[in-house]
Amino acid sequence: MILINGDSFTYGHGLPDCHVEPDYPGPVASEVAWPKLLGNMLGVEVINRAQPGHSNIQILRDILNSKDILPTDIIVVGWT
Questions:
Q1: Are 20 and 9 in contact (CB under 8 A)?
Q2: Cα dihedral angle (76, 56, 50, 1), rounded to 10 degrees?
Q3: For the sheet containing 2-6, what is the strand order?
Q4: 43 vs 1, 2, 72, CA distance in Å?
Q5: What is the pTM assigned to this prediction?
Q6: CB 49 within 8 A of CB 43
Q7: Which residues contact 8 (CB under 8 A, 6 or more apart)?
Q8: What's the CA gap between 31 and 60, in Å, rounded?
Q9: What was the pLDDT predicted at 22?
Q10: Separation CA 6–CA 29 (nearest Å)
């Protein structure tokens, strides 16, 4: 599994299928953002944990405080 953290670019903000409203029942992030495309190309599960508006320190805190990262996971960070 690949875990991806980043900001709005990684999230896919601004792409046609992206919705950032917290109550919107649609996708968590864009299906055409680069993390999803990467997973499709590699044939692996990708979890896009990017959040619009996150700074580098927030991205780092999210990674360091994550309780479900396994030693076999790959972590990709999209710094702002």
A1: no
A2: 20
A3: 46-48, 2-6, 74-78
A4: 10, 11, 16
A5: 0.77
A6: no
A7: 14, 50, 51, 52, 53, 54
A8: 24
A9: 61
A10: 12
- Residues 6 or more apart in contact with residue 54 via CB below 8 angstroms: 5, 6, 7, 8, 62, 80
Beta bridge partners of residue 5, listed in sequence order: 77
10 in Cβ contact with 63 (< 8 Å): no
pLDDT at 19: 62
pLDDT tens string 4-62 = 999 888 988 888 776 656 665 545 678 888 999 999 999 999 988 888 888 999 999 99
Residues 6+ apart with CB under 8 A from 13: 20, 30, 52
Two tokens at 8?
A: 């709005």
